[in-house]
Write a structure and sequence with these properties.
The structure is a homodimer. Chain A is α/β, with parallel strands linked by helices. Chain A has one domain (21-292): Rossmann fold. Chain A is 30% helix and 17% strand. Chain A is built from nine helices and nine strands. Chain A has helices spanning 58-64, 85-92, 108-114, 135-141, 155-166, 181-188, 208-214, 231-249, 277-292, and strands spanning 2-9, 12-18, 20-24, 35-38, 69-73, 170-175, 193-199, 219-223, 254-258. A seven-stranded mixed β-sheet of chain A has the order 3-5-4-6-7-8-9, sandwiched between helices. A two-stranded antiparallel ribbon of chain A has the order 1-2. Chain A is globular and about 60 Å long. In chain A, 51% of the residues are buried. Chains A and B meet through β1, β2, α2, α3 and α4 of A and β1, β2, α2, α3 and α4 of B. Chains A, B: InterPro entries: AB_hydrolase_fold, Carboxylesterase_BioH. Chains A, B: This is Esterase.
């Protein structure tokens, strides 16, 4: 969906900024709103599918729980493609090499730190929920991130808000890099965005006007375990604490869950792939039922 | 699946050459072999999903016909990712711009010619089966093709033969750029490859030894309509006529179908998206039933 036409040479137009969407609609959706799932840095929609150790992913589980699911690949990633024009211009010598975007490839070693598998590469936390014996399956999911090609006004934001409208209402759920894509999409247009779910993100600072807009939509923020052991995650957690306070002050309905505080321990940053991933999914689904409800009203 | 570890800097390893595979297994597969679907140039596994005008794609239809389906993204494309190391080296100035691969982006205009929508851009054939009013949906599927990054021994070949083994038998189906990937995979290892299906490809020339190996596996080659109006497609068609003759001379079971010859008219190069796509799928399924059969034997 989405996208725009770009002319790369006379009589040669290409389509860029489009967004791939994969969907499943259960036979009996019981008036549940669709859930749109957006992956993080250096990953694709694959994050929501089967886990590295072959268990059910959130995509399938949400469908089993009667939720229509829409799994996207971010613009400039995976099946959404990217605009390769600048690469070909640098190769042809019409642009300098400095024009190339920085492409992020997360290494195995960085994954351990960013995804909180352990303090030292190769030494997982003893109570880690990530299926670390099959970590190679995660490495296979890690692909180049070309988001630096995109303008500050990331086309994914508009595509997501357009998707919510085309679905006549949807809950948007982002993870990590895309953790606040739901919020940025709502700032493009709140119409038909019924809930914002943020899984582990460094919460952005918004203006009072933006906070007022965002406070109109129910929001959930979830963090896993081991946060206190990683400075960057302590910072992220604090930024979200601040964000939550501002949304509450603006009268918003926002829930901040640190999983260990509700008795769920050992979760990595990749909670949708962890061994207890369905338990975490239930936390999200329960929040949707209580704070978003169904088409035509009716919260639990 | 697949892939290898590449060290990009001290203490920074990444996984490259892996292949994303998306699968659906029907509840009652009735001993049918899985069908592995491989997309063409500048496209992704999306080719086999819903059509641009919102009809059922081959992925879903084959499942409805009780076939387990495995839709892959080629190595270096879409959810399989690619090795971005050379791009970052050129940006850093450690490699010259000429080191960059040529990235293929198919334009709207080229699509009309290559995919045989019409002789002139914007003027479709009157009996064209492609849903041309929704052609923008195809343009959205067209993404950069980085295959020039890959070695001649494309890692997708080995990944496909490994996949066939892991499935204990599979039919491989390629389209266009990947039309002979099934054959190249069989040349890596014929084990468990039960059938080779080629949808519109410029058939490669093999050695007699290779032909002898390939002749052991049932093969189907399919071409659509309007071939005679495009010199490159006349050449492709002729190359396959030659290939078929050699396989037959080696005692192989090979079927060459020009759809208009069996009364199916108007098909573009994107026959899996055409308005009569399920009729074409039936031709393929019928061939599988008659020439490949089921697990434990039993051809129709």
């Amino acid at each position: 969906m989405g996208g725009r036409t770009e002319t790369v040479s006379p009589d040669n137009d290409i389509t860029v900024d489009q967004m791939y969407v994969q969907y499943q609609i259960p036979q009996d959706a019981k008036r549940h709103f669709p859930v749109v799932m957006i992956h993080g840095c250096c990953l694709s929609g694959k994050s929501w599918e089967e886990t590295p150790d072959g268990r059910m992913g959130w995509n399938t589980y949400f469908v089993q729980r009667n939720r229509p699911t829409y799994v996207v690949d971010q613009v400039s990633r995976a099946r959404s493609g990217f605009d390769a024009t600048v690469f070909n211009q640098v190769k042809a010598g019409t642009l300098p090499p400095s024009s190339l975007p920085s492409i992020t490839q997360v290494s195995h070693q960085s994954s351990w730190n960013i995804f909180r598998f352990g303090l030292t590469f190769g030494q997982p936390f003893t109570n880690l929920q990530f299926p670390i014996a099959q970590v190679e399956g995660l490495y296979q999911q890690e692909i180049p991130d070309l988001n630096s090609l995109l303008p500050a006004d990331n086309p994914t934001y508009t595509n997501l808000s357009t998707l919510a409208k085309s679905l006549d209402g949807a809950v948007l759920m982002g993870h990590s890099e895309s953790g606040f894509f739901p919020q940025f999409s709502a700032l493009v247009d709140t119409t038909k965005i019924k809930g914002l779910i943020t899984l582990e993100h460094n919460c952005n600072v918004f203006t009072d006007v933006q906070i007022k807009t965002l406070a109109k939509i129910p929001q959930l923020i979830v963090f896993g375990d081991f946060i206190e052991l990683f400075p960057q995650w302590v910072t992220a957690n604090q930024s979200c604490t601040n964000y939550v306070a501002r949304i509450k002050a603006a009268g918003g309905d926002i829930t901040f869950i640190h999983l260990p505080d509700i008795g769920i321990h050992g979760n990595s940053h990749m909670m949708m792939l962890d061994k207890n991933n369905l338990q975490v999914a239930d936390v999200v689904l329960d929040w949707i039922d209580k704070h978003v409800g169904k088409r035509g009203g009716g919260k639990q």
